[in-house]
Amino acid sequence: MKIPEQLRREVWEANLAIYRAGLVTMHSGNASGVDRRRGLVVIKPSGMDYDKLRSEDMVVTDLEGRKVSGRWQPSVDLPHHLYIYKHRPDIGGVIHTHSNYATSFALLNRPIPVYLTAIADEFGAEIPCVPYADNQGDHMGEGILKYMGNAPAVLLAQHGVFTFGATPRAALKAAVMLEDVAKTCHLALLLGKPRPLPAKEVRKWYERYHTTYGQTRR
Amino acid sequence: MKIPEQLRREVWEANLAIYRAGLVTMHSGNASGVDRRRGLVVIKPSGMDYDKLRSEDMVVTDLEGRKVSGRWQPSVDLPHHLYIYKHRPDIGGVIHTHSNYATSFALLNRPIPVYLTAIADEFGAEIPCVPYADNQGDHMGEGILKYMGNAPAVLLAQHGVFTFGATPRAALKAAVMLEDVAKTCHLALLLGKPRPLPAKEVRKWYERYHTTYGQTRR
Amino acid sequence: MKIPEQLRREVWEANLAIYRAGLVTMHSGNASGVDRRRGLVVIKPSGMDYDKLRSEDMVVTDLEGRKVSGRWQPSVDLPHHLYIYKHRPDIGGVIHTHSNYATSFALLNRPIPVYLTAIADEFGAEIPCVPYADNQGDHMGEGILKYMGNAPAVLLAQHGVFTFGATPRAALKAAVMLEDVAKTCHLALLLGKPRPLPAKEVRKWYERYHTTYGQTRR
Amino acid sequence: MKIPEQLRREVWEANLAIYRAGLVTMHSGNASGVDRRRGLVVIKPSGMDYDKLRSEDMVVTDLEGRKVSGRWQPSVDLPHHLYIYKHRPDIGGVIHTHSNYATSFALLNRPIPVYLTAIADEFGAEIPCVPYADNQGDHMGEGILKYMGNAPAVLLAQHGVFTFGATPRAALKAAVMLEDVAKTCHLALLLGKPRPLPAKEVRKWYERYHTTYGQTRR
């Protein structure tokens, strides 16, 4: 079977990027992507050093998790990625991290309201927290699907975060921005009582960001 | 029309610098500069990766925002930059970031008093917080102009910061120092009750910094 | 006597890694490893710059601390490393740091409960805090042995941390993950009251991590 | 007059090191050293970018501050460095920074007690805080001399820190360790009430660190 080279490279780059951005340490976290046409998923191998990862170390499986290509075992979090891909055909990239500030909210089972215009821009809604789920079967995938709203990110209680996007690159953007806004919100909560933006204001930012922002119009 | 090469390079360098200094992540933030003689503004393109930006990717517009040169769409924050340039002829460079510590004050709609000699040095006055403004028309530019005092920086409630200077480089210095002093003030506020410097002391530092400091005398 | 080249290189790399990961500054901290067959220990030299360390600067001693090879004096913490190696034949690598977040718990004589799945994964149990011990004789080694539980890490009151593993690389992983989870727990404790995972849940994560995780099955 | 090349290089390296260690931003902070035999002081030029500094940009003055060599104006903080060199013949290197965690204590006019063994090691005593002094005449130098104890560092209220050593390199070590211990102490103070080490314990660590530590015995 032909390996999805372009996707493999994108998934590799997303894995390097979460490491360089400080969202993961040692072997924690993972990025994946799906090739819907061929029904293939590419994901980081389990327990390997980020700074030694090569594109060809990525593991390719089908949507049932059967290995199609790659020398290594896939991430043990593969079932959660697969569950999301199977139930959300609009999602093409998934990232899992334990990034510190976002996970500090998750540890308290606490969502992140739309306190900042940057949250309105990227997420468009409160970032929900999925109640604690263990690592058995589809428990985690089911929890994510159930609590996932419109925002391309969820917190996982006492665990970490998952972010989503149409591509691995889009999921990366959500992962980086989630930690960035979580940090600012955390710092503000230590000094006072921030207030969420009204829903009407949230829509203004979200709409601008998803229509006029970027280079898609050219 | 001749492209302002020198300014384009300065604006590009200021954009790289805010990224390297950790003041922005992914696509957030932007730096611009104005060439008053030619009536041209140079600004970062919208939604592009900082680490791939080249000098020639900068967008050149006139003071009404009409593109004069450049392959890309300009930052969606261009109108706020233009508003400042049109109303403050002394300003030649503008920077916008969501840097975490400064924005944590902004999220609480809270100015930063002159707690530190470094604030007196660079800013010479309290750093004000502009009340929340949406992204429509000139709302943000008007708010910035109305609340901007003598300090080359303002906080934007629930949003981020803008800094100013005679050049993009000067605006960069204000952006870096703003985050630096915001961090120290935040840390102190967690431990106790800092007191602002008396106005007389603020003047001593500001005057030394703006007369004998640096290499301008040589 | 033949120098254990492979181990020397591993110990050198672990010393570089704790510096690059920001767990140590200037001359603080140290990593060591033991060659059980030959009865040799390799450790960082005392008070030398991390960024100038070469593999050949590592000091080789026997298990009584007598120098066997190397130009420099060994770390003054060598006796604590030796004590651990002599009393725990399962341990092949030891790391000592003053990493900030973990040491902030140690300064308060406060263990880190299993608040996070990442703590369950790597440590499998609360990370205990050894009561203050001075630097005389075997006081520190004895305290570490007495309080060390199943987790490959201990906090040292008002001092820092020690981590352990079958190899220097494994001790490094524990050192990096300890600081990472300590940071997330610290941030959460500032915002609310996190709750430890139930023992049954801790076992699920620990077992998965120590059986199906990584590449050992291939 | 012959330029003290070796010292100039050491001072340049200390200036680069405080920048790379994140103790200073933009143009803040400065490192100097003295050549007692020739009566010459080497210091950073005023208001110049750290990442563009070359060894030959350092400014050489006599102990009265008269420029002996160098193209640039010296740091405006030169008078404070000179005051220390003139009154403390044991000091050969001085560093000034606004490093965030240490300065957060300074902003509150609050010394840092010997909470940690690392403070006992390097500083051997509480790090005192000099009450607010303005930038006129010898006010700052006098305050530093008056409050300086045995620790090679002082905090300056609402301002920053000065550290000292027999060489610029030793002053650098004190500056890096000061910020490191200030961070750990700050983090602990947010979670609880740390207690200083008893004086007897402080002496044990200080004596070990200043007798058996490092490579001086070889």
Topology of this structure?
Four copies of one chain form a homotetramer.
Chain A lengths: L4 H16 L9 E6 L4 E4 L15 E4 L4 E3 L8 H10 L5 E5 L2 H8 L9 H6 L6 E2 L8 H9 L5 E4 L3 E6 L2 H24 L7 H13 L7
Parallel strand pairs in A: 6-7
Antiparallel strand pairs in A: 1-2, 1-5, 2-3, 3-4, 5-8, 7-8
How would you portray this structure in words?
Four copies of one chain form a homotetramer. By secondary structure, chain A is of the alpha+beta class. Chain A is built from seven helices and eight strands, in the order αββββαβααβαββαα. Chain A has a single domain, classed as Class II aldolase/adducin N-terminal domain (L-fuculose-1-phosphate Aldolase), CATH 3.40.225.10. In chain A, strands 4-3-2-1-5-8-7-6 form an eight-stranded mixed beta sheet, sandwiched between helices. In chain A, strand 7 and strand 8 form a beta hairpin. The longest helix of chain A is centred in the C-terminal third of the chain and has 24 residues. The radius of gyration of chain A is 17 Å and the shape is globular. Chains in contact: A-B, A-C, B-D, C-D. Chains A and B meet through helix 6 and helix 7 of A and helix 3 and helix 6 of B.
Q: Helix count of chain A?
A: 7
CATH overall fold name of chain A: L-fuculose-1-phosphate Aldolase
Question: Which chains share the greatest interface?
Answer: A-B, 30 and 31 residues
CATH class of chain A: Alpha Beta
Distance between the termini of chain A: 37 Å
| CATH superfamily descriptor of chain A | Class II aldolase/adducin N-terminal domain
Number of strands of chain A: 8
Shape of chain A: globular
H and E order of chain A? HEEEEHEHHEHEEHH
